[in-house]
Amino acid sequence: MYPPEFDYERADSVDHALELMDEHAGEEIELLAGGHSLLPTMKSGLASPDVLIDIGHIEALQGVETNGDGFSIGALANYADVDDSPEVWEGATAFADATHRIGDVQVRNRGTVGGNIAHADPASDLGGALLASNGTVVAQGPDGEREIPADDFYLGMYATALEPEELLTRIELPETGENDVGAYAKKPSPSSGYPIVGVAAVLHTDGEEIESARVGANNIMDHGVRLTPTEEALAGEPLEEETMEEAAEVATDELDDVMMMEDLQASAEFRAQLTRVYTKRALLGALDRLESAPPAAAD
């Protein structure tokens, strides 16, 4: 299916993109980055923009940088940029792990981190990882720059805290400590590779006990969510397999069964069971990393 006719604009800078967004205020606008999420929705008729603003050539939105507190991932950084970074694998392992498990090599070299997060597809691999990593979304608008904590970013299916006139410019991830570790586990759809359920876990430890934890999940509700019962069950407990198994069993205790995702691939009941299973796998994966060599980029 061909999309309806639309106007095309190419932005050369962040300021230029904001000017174009303001110029076309009141019209249906879509921003084009890598196009992996947008173009299929346009072809299917789910998105019908009046204006397509191409931001894919803005140099300021490219790349992955390290700073004193962690990592700054440009909105146009592709998944491979993150996956290929030893620094991100060491300091934000769960997020790097999630990018590594997206699609195939071609997808990882084209799809963008910012586009993935801004699109807010419940089945996105990065929703849970952003939450578990305690990330921050940075947006630029007419009034300047705004930081949005991951906990406040996802509002619903394809809905975020971004204002219509704002552009997501980068993702900030804090660097984990020496004894901290993370992992991501998912049950992929056999047809698309998207997660039927995906769980990311970050454990903050003193080397013997878990001081605190953040566990995020995707495609179980209409947006990425934290599994707070599991986080609470982990705090203060020893770094043992039994701890991980018991914490995983309570993963869905505070989720509303009525609101849980249900589709042809999994009923709500089956999805809840998968959530517990893949929470366990993510936690045991993190424990295994902590007990073995320091995390490194996956093969």
Condensed summary:
This protein has a 5-stranded antiparallel β-sheet. The protein has a 4-stranded antiparallel β-sheet with strand order 11-12-13-14, sandwiched between helices.
List key phrases describing it.
Uridine Diphospho-n-acetylenolpyruvylglucosamine Reductase, domain 2; 5-stranded antiparallel sheet; 3 domains; 25% strand; 4-stranded antiparallel sheet; 299 residues; alpha+beta; Enolase-like, domain 1; Uridine Diphospho-n-acetylenolpyruvylglucosamine Reductase, domain 3
Your description of this structure?
- The chain is of the alpha+beta class and 299 residues long.
- The chain folds into three domains: 7-51, Uridine Diphospho-n-acetylenolpyruvylglucosamine Reductase, domain 2 (2-Layer Sandwich); 62-174, 2-Layer Sandwich (Uridine Diphospho-n-acetylenolpyruvylglucosamine Reductase, domain 3), CATH 3.30.465; 181-291, 2-Layer Sandwich (Enolase-like, domain 1), CATH 3.30.390.
- It has helices at 14-23, 38-44, 79-83, 86-91, 93-100, 105-108, 113-119, 126-132, 150-153, 228-234, 241-249, 268-291; strands at residues 7-10, 29-32, 51-54, 64-66, 70-74, 136-141, 144-149, 154-156, 159-160, 167-174, 181-188, 195-205, 210-218, 225-226.
- A five-stranded antiparallel β-sheet has the order 4-5-10-6-7. Strands 11-12-13-14 form a four-stranded antiparallel β-sheet, sandwiched between helices. Strands 1-3-2 form a three-stranded parallel β-sheet, covered by helices on one side.
- Strand 12 (195-205) and strand 13 form a beta hairpin.
- Helix 11 (241-249) runs antiparallel to helix 12.
- The two termini are 38 Å apart.
- The model has no long low-confidence stretch (mean pLDDT 94).
